[in-house]
């Protein structure tokens, strides 16, 4: 199969189920966001015809960076009426497109990106959105894989956040200097409602860890919900990969939109 351009090399092989969103009704493109003394690259999309400030969704990348799939997620959200912004959160440390396999990408780049730096960068994304047609009172976040974990953390970091949806982000893990806390550690600190979407066949996120997180959320009396799709594995929303599970992905997308509507999305 000829590889589609715009997708991360480490994510190969690419599947034939790639979803591509038309841009006729939206405005989309690259920008830079000032953050911690540097200009962070980002992709953004919004509906062409919008009256007044738009609800904002920060889209947090998988380990592969802001490649074509994440850009298309932004376009899909723009069609739903959101200003969607996906920042390049590894930009200080390297380019994920330079890696052709996941283990090397993770060890040489992803593991070197500090959580604290990422959370501060996301604060600057929120500020940029508020200055560029976004409504700061309707701020949401969603993320996938690596970004799913970050979405949990951000829901305990920014009290202005209204809602978060975490797609198959790791919930437990070893504590390191760059990652001193994991979602299970911050259940008591959540200030925004979080929806977690997980695959029952995900070998990297065992159901035991999902149950551990559920217990932590119950103990914290947190406003959160975790949905497990029994037939889906990891990255079940990644329509460009063989892991794509269409039924679960479509259900998860509708649940995400409903979560955003319920907890501070569109008026």
Automatic annotation (TrEMBL):
Ranges for domain Dienelactone hydrolase: 40-263
InterPro entries recorded: AB_hydrolase_fold, Dienelactn_hydro, Dienelactone_hydrolase-like
Keyword field: Hydrolase
GO MF annotation, one: hydrolase activity
Enzyme class: hydrolase
Record has S-adenosyl-L-methionine as a keyword: no
Cited SUPFAM superfamilies: alpha/beta-Hydrolases (SSF53474)
EC number of this enzyme: 3.-.-.-, 3.1.-.-
Domain of life: Bacteria
Alphabetical list of PANTHER family matching this protein: ALPHA_BETA-HYDROLASES SUPERFAMILY PROTEIN, CARBOXYMETHYLENEBUTENOLIDASE-RELATED
Protein name as annotated: Dienelactone hydrolase family protein
